[in-house]
Design a protein that fits this description.
alpha/beta, 378 residues, single chain
């Protein structure tokens, strides 16, 4: 179980696709944060993931530090086990917070869209100033202490042409874990997809080249689609189940099925309760069942079991319904799967050792980490 805590709706950047639910401006209180952690410990028999989210969560860094301290104290009392993570734009990420994160085992994911021409197109500072030159040193500092930190890259129609350059740039910075997502809410047209397809075909050739050279990395569009073929017998079970595996807590403490839903408000059908009184299980089951229902539009699709069509949060964001599919998502998935499948076929036929180890050995993440740790110690 994961709880995403929307600490604040405020932000210190002007990203064109930034998401923050409407609110009265007050950040999450200490009391609400503690109640959220208490709820998380009750909902899980093992550990609970806590994600600090925003707006920009580092505007509430004191609250983050106090809630991490509270969680660690609860662990000492055997009242829960927590894994903490923060998703940040990086503007307030400094050496002091990095030291705190390392000392307290807090994972950090940072948004960064690649080369300056792509990143500065939509991630702007106050006064509409570019942010690339300000944020690049912060990203380098993060990767220096957290080599496996997730870097979150968003692709827009007007930045699709920079996809290969941006990914190459980030990997050359020693980024090892790159999550690349489309801005599905943007106005994607067929010419944009033609550009995107050319970029992914170029990226496919580089993926093969990098893998054959023994270069270790995680690149989400490829790894996920490769897994959807290799592990198709259990792939659907690994995907998000709306209102089940993760819940979102708005600054006032109201519970929602995922990160997009707090903007609907506590009086909406998407509110699942409050941290002070727990979850409305009937509402939770209703939303889950509706999300899991067969999508009529997808019934005859050859890749329906490998597609991201089950993401009720994304469906609701783009169509207003958790059970309807965005045309942009459908077009993207239909384009992506054949490209990635050709990559898998090439590497499998070559019996590439890194590819086989990475995708057919369940112990690969642990073994890879041990290998990297030993290499750094030499």
């Amino acid at each position: 179980m994961h709880l995403t805590l929307h600490l604040t709706t405020a932000c210190n950047m002007g990203c064109s696709y930034c998401y923050a639910p409407p609110h009265d401006g007050r950040p999450m209180s200490e009391a609400v944060g503690r109640q959220a952690l208490d709820l998380g410990s009750r909902l899980t028999s093992g550990s609970c993931g806590i994600v600090f989210f925003g707006g920009e969560p580092l505007l509430c860094r004191d609250r983050i530090q106090s809630l991490v301290a509270y969680g660690r104290e609860q662990e000492r009392r055997q009242a829960g086990r927590f894994h903490f993570k923060i998703t940040t734009n990086g503007l307030l990420l400094d050496d002091a917070f990095l030291e705190f994160a390392v000392r307290n085992d807090v994972l950090i994911a940072m948004s960064f869209d690649g080369v300056a021409d792509a990143h500065d197109r939509h991630r702007r500072l106050a006064g509409d100033r570019p942010s690339f030159d300000v944020l690049l040193p912060r990203l380098k500092s993060l990767l220096a202490v957290r080599p496996y930190a997730s870097v979150l890259m968003v692709v827009n129609p007007d930045t699709a042409e920079y996809l290969v350059d941006s990914i190459s740039f980030l990997l050359d910075l020693s980024c090892r874990y790159l999550i690349v997502s489309l801005n599905y809410a943007a106005d994607w047209q067929e010419p944009d997809f033609r550009v995107l397809r050319k970029q992914f075909k170029r990226l496919a050739s580089l993926y093969v080249k990098w893998t054959r050279a023994g270069r270790k990395f995680y690149l989400s569009p490829f790894e996920v689609k490769l897994s959807s073929h290799i592990n198709r017998h259990c792939y659907r079970k690994e995907r998000c189940e709306l209102a089940r595996r993760q819940l979102s807590v708005d600054p006032q403490g109201y519970l929602f099925p995922c990160v997009q839903f707090p903007k609907a408000g506590p009086d909406s059908q998407w509110c699942l309760g409050h941290v002070s009184r727990g979850i409305d299980e009937a509402a939770r089951q209703r939303i889950h069942d509706e999300s899991e229902a067969e999508k009529e539009f997808c019934v005859s699709c050859a890749i329906k079991d490998r597609c991201n069509n089950t993401c009720g949060c994304l469906n609701w964001q783009t169509t207003g319904s958790i059970n309807s599919i965005s045309p942009v998502l459908c077009r993207y998935e239909q384009m992506l799967v054949p490209i990635v499948d050709r990559v898998g076929k090439v590497l499998y036929r070559k019996r590439d050792p890194l590819f086989l180890h990475k995708h057919y050995n369940a112990a690969y993440p642990v073994l890879s980490l041990l290998e990297d740790t030993m290499t750094r110690r030499k």
